[in-house]
Every structure is written in structure tokens, then in C-alpha cells.
Amino acid sequence: MIIISKFKYKNILPIIRYIDNMCFNEYEIYDDDYLLNLIKLCSIYIAIDNIKNTIIGYMIIENKENINYLHSIAILPKYQNQKIGTCLLNYIPHNSILLCVKRTNFIAQKLYINCGFIKKSIIKNYYLISNNEYEDAIIMSKNI
């Protein structure tokens, strides 16, 4: 059984680091200073495997003027494709949601579209993907 909960403690950095290292390449991972700032400013939601008593995913949401900005969402690889990302996204408080996703991240785009997000616009060269290579971002939104 999977439980979704708002994380209320400050010591989540090592957990996020572990999940990020399992899910993303080195250029997709936030540096510690930026991540610590997000942890201070944002709400962190976690997915817990209740049987193993283990955190298996997280989501970082910043609320500004009744708009939720999804900074990051990640689920450990062995738990992916089990609707856990959908459960996390459905846990977001009720108001507008904005996010950016890589133009080539079709799996994430499918998740967001299935959760009711629509593509709004493109930001050129938004994501650093290697030393001197960038990738476009798609801005997606959902109004609740």
C-alpha cells in the first residue's frame, strides 16, 4: 500500500538526493544550495511504501498567489508505472498548477496529460543536458 503525505521535517535533503540519483542524470539534479532553498520555501510531498516503510518518491510544490509551481517530482525506478506519480499530482492543493517538462520527456508528458494538464508554450534551451547542450522545455498547466 502506498501512502501520500506532506513531509513536515527539515532533514529530507538526503532522501531527495538518493531518489534524484536513481532517477536523473547529473545535469538534471539540483545543486544542494538550490535544493535547500526550495525545501525552505516549498511544500514537500512524499510517497511511502507502507509495507516496507520506505519513502519511494517525492514532489516539490511552491505556492505563489494561489498558483502551484511543480519544481520536481520523482519516483524510484522500481515503483514507476504504478500510478504513484498520479497519486502525488492529485494530492496538490486545489488551485492552478504550472510545470516545465523536457520536450523529449514523453513519459512525463503522458503522465501530466493523463492528469489533466495541457501544453501552453515552449521555452527554448531551458534544460542543460550536457556540457554545452540544452533542451527546450514545455510549459504545462492545469486549472482546478
Concise summary:
The chain is of the alpha+beta class and 144 residues long. It has 4 helices and 7 strands.
Q: Percent of residues in beta strands? A: 35-45%
What is the chain-wise order of helices and strands?
EHHEEEHEHEE
Strand order of the largest sheet: 1-2-3-4-5-7-6
Q: Determine the structural class based on helices, strands and strand pairing.
A: alpha+beta
CATH topology: Aminopeptidase
Total number of strands:
7
**Rg measurement, Å:** 15 Å
Give the fraction of residues assigned to helices.
25-40%
What would you note in describing this structure?
By secondary structure, the protein is an alpha+beta fold. Helices cover 26% and strands 44% of the residues. It is built from four helices and seven strands, in the order βααβββαβαββ. It has a seven-stranded mixed β-sheet with strand order 1-2-3-4-5-7-6. A hairpin with a 2-residue loop joins strand 6 (118-130) and strand 7. The longest helix has 11 residues, at 13-23. The protein starts with a strand and ends with a strand.
Please render the helix and strand layout as text.
Elements (H helix, E strand, L loop, with lengths): L1 E6 L5 H11 L8 H10 L1 E7 L4 E11 L2 E9 L8 H7 L5 E7 L3 H9 L3 E13 L2 E10 L2
